[in-house]
Specification:
five-stranded parallel β-sheet; binds phosphoric acid mono(formamide)ester; alpha/beta
């Protein structure tokens, strides 16, 4: 449904105001779900990033709202804690005028023994259009995608993928560097347990970046070279001449056993200090997906320093999630052939 010009907040030239369903010429993604970066090609990644540029413009308006998803219902289903992802999906949904609700699993019937599949089947009985989900088990969104009529958006599954985080990271890098191809990106931290790492490596390699992965040998995933990243245990080698330095936190909640001797030693060997940052290019940007552990993977002088774009990443998350919601809204799960074909 298009709006009369008089109803629109300020200029609406650049931002999409109609859903792809209403405009057959509008772009959409090849799959009706976003389960991971794996499965997206360079053209689709570029489409999401370009669409996010238009969405960012909406966030700069006095009235930050367009009617794009009016009449659509989005459920946010988070089985793990989240500050940034859940909040920015909620803001993105509201800016697109979707009806949105967030299920707090701690107060839902999951605590009474209901299975994930039963929970989602019951939610689907109320006809949502999209479900944004975070779950501790790798593959949980894919399981739901097989049985749900709604579009499933993965907001982080176990140690597998966190696609919207990698997309907002790419958006932030592109905003500063103008490109992704050919950049040296050093990712330092707990790589083994990180879904952010996995999604970032796949995205950055797809877009032609040179990815260096650095951490203690115990926290470097086996088979990393298959993803096309170079690995090193030397933080100096990883950071030398880097365009981008991305830090990842130590994920104690996913560790069983001892992977590092102590947090003090980890900081001494891998912590990002101003001295280490000086090895990178003069125009380096320092990134962190959050939550940050100051004094463990990053020194406060770096986190709050001139090269840090950490809060910019958070701001860009809203525009990128608006872009994803918009591009997936073109699929109508009740009629599409893809539903039958299981895409
Ligand atoms: N980056 C990220 O996923 O943060 P949250 O866990 O706060 O959502």
């Amino acid at each position: 449904m298009s709006t009369r010009a008089a109803d629109r907040p300020e200029s609406a030239e650049r931002a999409p105001e109609r859903t792809p369903n209403q405009d057959p010429a509008a772009p959409r993604l090849k799959s009706r779900h976003l389960l991971g970066i794996a499965g997206l090609d360079a053209e689709e990644i570029t489409l999401i990033l370009d669409t996010a540029e238009a969405m960012k413009e909406i966030g700069g308006r006095a009235i930050k709202k367009v009617p794009t998803l009016r009449g659509r219902t989005v459920v946010n289903l988070f089985f793990e804690p989240s500050t940034r992802t859940r909040t920015s999906f909620e803001i993105a949904e509201k800016r697109l005028s979707a009806d949105t609700l967030s299920i707090a699993t701690a107060t839902s019937s999951v605590t009474k023994g209901e299975t994930l599949v039963d929970t989602v089947r019951n939610l689907e009985a109320m006809s949502p259009d999209m479900i944004v989900m975070r779950h501790a088990s790798s593959g949980a969104p894919e399981l739901l995608a097989r049985i749900c009529r709604s579009a499933i958006i993965n907001a982080g599954d176990g140690m597998h993928e966190h696609p919207t985080q990698a997309l907002l990271d790419a958006f932030t890098i592109r905003a500063h560097k103008g490109r992704l191809a050919g950049l040296k990106v050093a990712i330092v931290g707990d790589l083994l347990h990180s879904r952010v790492f996995r999604s970032n490596v796949i995205l950055l390699k797809t877009m032609g970046a040179d990815v260096w992965a650095c951490g203690p040998a115990t926290l470097i995933p086996p088979g990393l070279e298959r993803l096309g990243a170079r690995s090193t245990t030397s933080v100096d080698e990883a950071v030398e001449g880097a365009d981008v330095v991305m830090l990842l936190r130590i994920q104690h909640e996913r560790m069983q056993g001892h992977y590092i001797p102590s947090l003090r030693e980890y900081f001494a060997l891998f912590g990002m200090t101003p001295e280490r940052v000086r090895r990178a290019r003069e125009d380096v940007i320092v990134m962190h997906p959050g939550p940050m552990n100051r004094g463990v993977e990053i020194d406060s002088a770096v986190a709050d320093g001139p090269f840090s774009v950490i809060l910019e990443q958070v701001s860009n998350g809203v525009a990128v999630r608006m872009a994803v919601l918009y591009l997936l809204s073109g699929w109508d799960g009740r009629n599409d052939e893809a539903l039958v074909e299981g895409r």
